[in-house]
Amino acid sequence: MATETKSPRVPRPAANPGAPQPADPARVRLEPRELSAFFGAAEVVRGVSIGFGDREVTAIIGPSGCGKSTLLRCLNRMHETVPNARVGGTVTLDGQDIYAKGVNPIEVRRHIGMVFQRPTPFPTMSIRDNVAAGLRILGRDRPSKTATDQIVEDALRRTALWDEVSSRLKESAVALSGGQQQRLCIARALATRPAVLLLDEPTASLDPISTQKVEELVYELRRDMTVVIVTHNMQQAARVSDRTAFMLAGELVEVAPTNSLFTTPGDQRTEAYITGRFG
Amino acid sequence: MTTPGIARPIAPPPRPPSRGRGLRPSGVQRAAAERTRTTLGRRRVVNVLMVGVTCVAAVVATLPLVFILGHLVREGASSINLAFFTELPKPPGEEGGGMANAMVGTLVLILAASAFGLPIGIGAGMYLAENRGTHLANAVRFLSDVLNGLPSIVMGIFAWQFLVRPMGKFTALAGGIALGAMMIPLVTRTTEEMIRIVPVSLREAALALGYSRWRTSLVVVLRTALPGIVTGALVAVSRIAGETAPLLFTVLGNQFWSTSLTEPIAALPLQIFSFAISPYDQQHALAWAGALVLIGIVLVISLAARFATRSRFGRGGD
User: Fold this and answer.
1) Is B183 helix (H, G, I), strand (E, B) or coil?
2) CB A243 within 8 A of CB A255
3) CB of B95 within 8 A of CB of B80?
4) Which of A20, A213, B255, B294 has the least C-beta neighbours within 10 A?
5) Residues 133-162 of A with CB under 8 A from B
6) Would the pLDDT of A17 be above 50?
7) What's the pLDDT at A23?
8) Is A124 in Cβ contact with B223 (below 8 Å)?
9) Averaged over B187-204, what is the pLDDT?
10) Reported pTM
11) CA-CA distance, A61 to A55, in Å (whole number)?
12) Do B208 and A189 touch (CB under 8 A)?
């Protein structure tokens, strides 16, 4: 990644009643504008505009089927890999439209990493090769073997996996526990130094202890990247995110600093959802 | 409607004494319990019956193999000696001799057939798996099934018409291509099935890392599906290893050493066939031995390939 101009660490926003969408203190890195997503004729994301700030964790919450995962998949051009899927609107990364003509989706995905609901280690690769999987495809920019080893170690240390797996880097990744596999997948996404990390319900298939480890990791990641996390779990959103966005039926209802969204929601539908009246 | 003499009260039969204190099962509950008891009994009988039937079927399914192997060993084992593996066939009437050239010939034919059939079959299977539902994929899938059912002798005639005649002579190459063409539909369908069962999530994980579509197919999907594809390829190889009909029209057979692809070549099935229809007991015994060795070769190929596709962790590095 190019070195960024030092922007001040985003302070955890205080509760700010009466102002549902306060001015964003963080520099916006990833910004969907009037983003719509379709499966065939069905519009599952409807004209969403939102800014994801630098060094900031944004949680997207909402009931099942509200389009939050689809929105996430539009942010690194994964949505279009599904047959009959279509995207409207724009998404800019550092001011550049990733849906512009001539932009290679493969290039986009190298800069915007993604972790899925279920752990997806490559079963034919060792633990080390799994973490290095994104590096092997860099062509001329591919790091040397020793450099790769260093990157692998760094990524595994960041995900707190190093002590658990350092002695068996050459063993199969599927032998790890579910929680370890998921942290391995996060390490794999981090190894290529993405500018943005997208997490699609990363703890949905994990036990509470693994969940806690992943949450701590997400909290740490804000130091040097933009993180967007889709979650079913409102407590999780409250724990890990700086800002929270609430989606309903494909529309973005509200986005606000996490504290204020959960204490003084600006929209009645948000309030109904977070107080458990539906969803 | 009263029948004199057998007048009965129309009241329901007396309830059995209740087991619980105060809580007596209602009529509906008792009926349900009764139903459960009878269906349980029936289920148990059906269960035992089905387990028995499938068990018998499983045993019967393996019986032919046991009989064939037993018979082959009884008839052929006595003719298997060093000479059988090292010598050329002797002219009729002479004692001794072996099938060394036919064994080598069969291996050459298997290699030639695999070199032709595997790349095309695996490639076609990948296409079918990645492009489901397109007109071309549906057509290819259908034609591949038809090809799979094509009698092998038709394949032989086809190879004779389009390879042997233009080349002006019988060649190992023509036989290899005929056998390879027979492998293609099997390999295609197995590859397609094996690639299909690779989870979509794995493919998405690779795409999300910035893998291109072809690299995802090759590095992640194909490698994950590889053990299954290898098994499919083995099934195809064992299927063609014993084929005789396509070889009759293409490689002809050879009494001498040859490993050249452009010459007629000996093959175990052909040698077995010509010895089996000969009038000499000596050659009959050799034919049995040849059949035993043919099965042995297929077995060894299977084992070797399985060994080669074990999980390969411990190698590391990129």
Assistant:
1) helix
2) yes
3) no
4) B255
5) 133-134, 136-137, 145, 148
6) no
7) 43
8) yes
9) 92
10) 0.73
11) 20
12) yes
DSSP label of A20: S
Please indicate, yes or no, if residue A234 is contained in any of the structural domains. Answer: yes
Taking the CA of residue A94 and the nearest CA in chain B, the distance in Å comes to 19
* Nearest CA distance, A75 vs chain B (angstrom): 11
Nearest CA in chain A to B211: A106
Side chain identity, residue A19: A
Q: Quick one: CA dihedral B274, B279, B283, B289, positive or negative?
A: positive
CB atoms within 10 A of CB B275: 23
Task: Evaluate whether residue A130 is within a structural domain.
Answer: no
Residue A121 CB contacts under 8 Å (≥ 6 apart), including other chains: A130, A173, A174, A176, A181, A184, A185, A188
Q: Which residue, B107, B101, B111, B74, is CA-closest to B292? A: B74
Nearest CA in chain B to A116: B205
- Inter-chain residue contact B313 with A172, CB threshold 8 Å: yes
Quick check: is A10 in a domain?
Answer: no
A11-to-A29, A242, B33 alpha-carbon distances in Å: 17, 9, 66
Q: Is residue B191 classed exposed, middle or buried when 0-12, 13-18 and 19+ CB atoms within 10 A define those classes? A: buried
CB crowding B216-230: b at 16 or more within 10 Å, else e: bbebbbbbbbebbbb
What backbone torsions phi and psi does residue A34 show, to the nearest 5 degrees? 45, 45
Which residue is listed with tokens 């609901």?
Answer: A117
Q: A3-6: long-range contacts (C-beta < 8 A, 24 or more apart)? A: A4/A54
Give the span between the Cα atoms of B4 and B78, in whole angstroms.
Answer: 91
Structural domain count of chain A: 1
Lowest mean pLDDT, pick from A65-74, B5-14, B71-80:
B5-14
Tell me the domains of chain B and their CATH numbers: 91-199+228-308 (1.10.3720.10)
Asked whether residue A148 is domain-assigned, the answer is: no
Question: Within 13 Å of residue B100, how many CA atoms lie on the same side as its CB?
Answer: 15
Closest CA to A117 of B208, B253, B302, B62: B208
Q: What is the pLDDT of residue B14?
A: 57
Top residue of B134, B194, B213, B313 to mutate, by most chain A CBs within 10 Å, is B313
* CATH number of the domain bearing residue A76: 3.40.50.300
- pLDDT confidence of residue B317: 34
Residue A94 belongs to domain spanning: 28-120+194-274
Question: Which amino acid makes up residue A148?
Answer: T
| Helix, strand, coil shares, percent, chain B, to 5 | 70, 0, 30
| DSSP string for residues in A128-158 | HHHHGGGTTT-GGGPPPHHHHHHHHHHHHHH
This model of the complex carries an ipTM of: 0.84
Are A116 and B205 an interchain contact pair (Cβ–Cβ within 8 Å)? Answer: yes
Q: What backbone torsions phi and psi does residue B171 show, to the nearest 5 degrees?
A: -140, 155
Give the model's pLDDT for residue A14. Answer: 44
Give the β-pairing of A196-200 and A226-230: parallel
Residues paired with residue B302 on neighbouring β-strands, in sequence order: none
DSSP A168: G
Give the start-end residues of each E strand in chain B. Answer: none
Rounded to a whole number of angstroms, the distance from the CA of A226 to the nearest CA of chain B is 16
Structural Rg of chain A based on CA atoms: 19
A132 inside 8 A of chain B by CB? yes
